[in-house]
From TrEMBL:
Biased composition (Acidic residues): 305-315
Skewed-composition ranges (Pro residues): 287-299
Region of interest (Disordered), residue spans: 277-315
Organism: invertebrate metagenome
Name this polypeptide is given: DUF4412 domain-containing protein
């Protein structure tokens, strides 16, 4: 696995999700950096069919630092995420059904609109497969693991055109095998070609903010035998993670969750806003639109919960 894959390992993020998100972002071209704005700061959620609409306070609390906060609005139609970047408000709207994502900058009354990767397939997947342009995927068997029926999948990541031109090797030296719980839509076990292993274990039901949720523990075993663990709290009714604890002590969670009637105004562009483009700098990364606040390109892994994914994820 090359440097890109090692970065996923260093972050203790299971490679299929991490790499799929990183490669998916690259496939989006000039908008890849803006797509991940805010994704790494907070636990994120994507709309799920049959899940109730809700709003919540989003918390990102790195160890030894002041927590960052935002607010999310989620319904079947899409998701709205309000947060601040360098003291300036930003609103991110994702509409999977329209394959559209918007970034709104209220102080400037401008917004960016771009074609969105089908995030719903990443955040609420029927299978563990990344997008076809990212990897090849096939189901090989059905087995029983920990008393539950699981699907066995083989994933082989594609060589990206830019890597071919640069003479880089594929991000994985061979196929990754995944044992997939189709009911809960979670990878119970992931075996990597270098000998690494990721396992996900249900620890039971717990209370989170007055809601009954499932506590899952993820253990990543590196090829040298070293292990790291993270925890996720999954809300079956909302069909999303509501809390995550990373190995370094970082906590991302939803608090003050309220079930509400969905409001189409969450996802509309307010009157008086002007649409601007997102030009490309010479290095291929997106430049900031005229009038938009300066938002730095996210660091590796910040979009994990798109998978998670991460995230979102958020899953």
């Amino acid at each position: 696995m090359d440097g890109e894959g090692r970065q996923c390992r260093q972050m203790s993020v299971p490679p299929p999700r991490c790499l799929a998100i990183r490669r998916g972002g690259r496939a989006m071209g000039k908008c890849a950096g803006l797509v991940a704005v805010g994704m790494g700061m907070f636990l994120t959620a994507s709309p799920a069919l049959a899940a109730p609409a809700f709003t919540a306070e989003a918390i990102h609390a790195p160890p030894g630092q002041s927590p960052e906060t935002g607010r999310v609005f989620i319904s079947e139609q899409g998701s709205r995420f309000e947060f601040e970047r360098k003291g300036r408000p930003v609103i991110q709207i994702m509409l999977p059904g329209q394959a559209v994502m918007r970034l709104l900058f209220p102080e400037d009354k401008t917004y960016v609109e771009m074609t969105q990767l089908p995030q719903s397939k990443i955040a609420h997947p029927k299978t563990p497969c990344p997008l076809p342009e990212v990897a090849q995927c096939e189901q090989t068997a059905v087995e029983t693991l920990n008393g539950r029926s699981v699907e066995v999948w083989r994933i082989t990541f594609n060589q990206m055109p830019g890597d071919l031109a640069a003479g880089k090797k594929s991000i994985a030296s061979g196929p990754i095998q995944i044992w997939w719980d189709a009911e809960r839509k979670v990878a119970i076990r992931e075996q990597y070609p270098d000998g690494g292993l990721s396992t996900t274990t249900l620890r039971g039901r717990v209370d989170h903010q007055g809601r009954s949720v499932e506590h899952w523990q993820v253990t990543l075993t590196r090829p040298d035998g070293e292990t790291v663990q993270m925890s996720r709290w999954y809300d079956p009714e909302l069909q999303t993670d509501v809390r995550e604890e990373r190995p370094n002590g970082t906590v991302r969670e939803f608090r003050n969750i309220r079930l509400v009637a969905p409001d189409p105004a969450w996802f509309a562009v307010p009157a008086g806003y002007r649409r601007v483009d997102s030009p490309v700098r010479r290095n291929g990364r997106p430049a900031h639109p005229p009038g938009a606040p300066s938002v730095p390109t996210p660091q590796p892994g910040e979009a994990y919960l798109l998978d998670d994914a991460d995230a979102p994820a958020v899953r």
